[in-house]
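Request: Could I get any protein with tokenized structure?
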Amino acid sequence: MPRPRPHGTPPAIRWPNQETVPCPRATGTGSSTHARKSRRPEQRKRGAAGGSSGSASSLKLTSLSTLGPLNPAPAPGADGPEGVPIPNAPPLATTATKATGNPVDGIRCDTSEQVLFHIHAHLTVFVNGSPRQIPAGIGIPGAQAQNTPKGTFISNGTCFYWLHTHAADGIIHTESPVHRTYTLGNFFNIWGQPLGPSQVGPAKGHVTAIYNGKVYEGNPRDIPIKADAQIQLQVGTPLVAPESITWPSGL
């Protein structure tokens, strides 16, 4: 069985006219749904851990048809260093407000990444029908950027919160020493940005949330960050059809 990619690094990069090589390991401290790639058995098992509480089946979800006509999602941007498209759009907000090392909602910032409970989810944001990026480096104080042929990847920092982002592709990494159901509210608290029924970061207006292709009814702060969840937040109108990414084999 192929050895899993060390975490804290982007997937292996294929340089022109060379073999595929892994990136160095970090030190220490659109509207269309694509065919899903196979996941390594150990990754599937790891992502399933702790998934019984707060499961998607317990959420109040309704059909997309309740939203009426939806605009088609824009074409995805180019794939970033994690193999996931990065929106051709400005960031929703900067990382200047992010937490700097003190615990947030009981979530510590550790000098190394914790992988006992290790899952990924994808977050997409639209404001008045236009996409916004989720910036790299949320939850990684003192972020140090690694330049790759696919773009910037945050490979290191002074510490890592159990919820963080390595690239501007919307992938939320949950790397925790305990099994726990984390929420978007926790993630936005680490980011230092507001989130609620009428605001996402600095964008204000009615918030529509879509969770795995269905309309989520409730406060978006309470949306659980579960393994492979695809979450879309929309502020204002027009509303956009849900995007769906292909999960790369390295995530």
In short: The longest helix spans residues 41-48. The chain has a mean pLDDT of 83. The two ends are 16 Å apart (CA to CA). The chain has one domain: 57-235.
